[in-house]
């Protein structure tokens, strides 16, 4: 009986660990007057969501995602105040280019969906 409990605990911890790795930060490059971009972006492959984390203030943000062939996957404008989730149900396995346009900053990042 104790072996079954131990196995159950290990499986629960393993599932929690695996789901914790589903969300990855996307490194952004671009022309900005700040040493660090004013926004952080994370992709969650499991839920197919993009998390935008604005460091401070409210800003109009335009998010464009294309594949490497140049096909538009996403082109959304939104007002972000703090953190915002963007659902990407249409995204499939592959490599993508992310463009973030803030009022005075243009950023670019690359990410991969593995499954």
Main features:
115 residues; single chain; Immunoglobulin-like; seven-stranded antiparallel β-sheet; 17% helix; alpha+beta; globular
Structural class: alpha+beta
**Averaging pLDDT over every residue, what do you get?**
83
The top level CATH class name: Mainly Beta
The CATH topology name reads: Immunoglobulin-like
Radius of gyration: 17 Å
Please identify, by name, the CATH architecture.
Sandwich
Count of structural domains: 1
Helix count equals 1
Give the termini distance in whole angstroms: 36 Å
Can you describe this structure?
The protein is built from one helix and seven strands, in the order αβββββββ. It has about 120 residues and is α+β, with helices and mostly antiparallel strands. The protein has one domain (about 25-115): Immunoglobulin-like (Sandwich), CATH 2.60.40. Strands 1, 2, 3, 4, 5, 6 and 7 form a seven-stranded antiparallel beta sheet that branches. Mean pLDDT is about 85; it is low at about 15-20.
Write the layout of secondary structure elements.
Elements: H1 2-20, E1 23-26, E2 28-31, E3 39-44, E4 49-67, E5 72-87, E6 94-101, E7 106-113
Antiparallel strand pairs: 1-3, 2-7, 3-4, 4-5, 4-6, 6-7
Please give a quick description of this structure.
This protein is α+β, with helices and mostly antiparallel strands and 115 residues long.
């Amino acid at each position: 009986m104790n072996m079954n409990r131990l196995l159950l605990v290990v499986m629960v911890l393993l599932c929690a660990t695996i789901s914790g790795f589903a969300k990855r930060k996307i490194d952004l490059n671009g022309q900005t007057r700040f040493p660090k971009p004013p926004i952080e972006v994370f992709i969650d492959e499991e839920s197919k969501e993009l998390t935008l984390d604005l460091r401070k203030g409210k800003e109009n943000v335009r998010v464009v995602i294309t594949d490497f062939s140049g096909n538009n996957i996403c082109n959304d404008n939104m007002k972000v105040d703090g953190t915002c989730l963007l659902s990407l149900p249409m995204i499939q396995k592959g490599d993508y280019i992310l463009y973030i346009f803030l009022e005075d900053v243009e950023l670019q990042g690359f990410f991969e969906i593995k499954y």
